[in-house]
Write a structure and sequence with these properties.
By secondary structure, the protein is of the alpha/beta class. The protein has 9 helices and 8 strands. The structure holds 2-phosphoglycolic acid and magnesium ion.
Amino acid sequence: MFSSIEALAFDLDGTLVDSLPDLAAAANAMREHFGLPRLTDARVAGHVGDGLAKLVHRTLTDERDGVAEPAQWEAGLAFFARHYREHLADLTRPYAGVVEALELLRARRLPLAVVTNKPAAFAMPLLEQLGLAGYFSLILGGDSLPEKKPSALPLTHTAEVLGVAPAKLAMVGDSINDVLAARAAGCPVVAVSYGYGDLADGDADATIGNLVELYDLLKNDRA
Ligand SMILES: O=C(O)COP(=O)(O)O
Ligand SMILES: [Mg+2]
């Protein structure tokens, strides 16, 4: 399945970078502003994955399906965005093996993309501040196109821009939205076993615990 992969698309939060400490700090600064008690990082992790608008609803209500009152949500969104923009990479770091894997994949001349639900205004400067932006031919945020993951659109768009068929573009991610987007687009999908997602064994076509395993997966499959 991975033997003919010609390009890769990576999820960002929970796959390339552990952004939870800075996301949780922004969420808790926002909650404190409204006199709400702090949430643990683990609670915030369960609220990540569907973009900023939902993250604010969920971290204000501390419910996965929670919907905040409109005025509070609007003020919370502005507060969160202002705080997070200033602290994108205070504690956020690439996961172990990420830089090594990107180097190996680049050496193989495989075009690489980031397909995240994080708004582009956060994703771009975060990747730049961590020195990762240069590895990617394309960086799509959750608001870069009319639809975000689990829609197929970001991946079909990526395949088109990179000039490969969707079946030759592997998606690498940590959450069900990554798997659903890949399935909808006809892309093979690799799950990472760390991250914030709720993937069960067998949801993806393969599961790895470190991105360097990706290189072996492609190589061994190819052999
Ligand atoms: O910010 C989010 O909602 C999730 O971002 P991701 O798609 O990179 O995991
Ligand atoms: Mg993710």
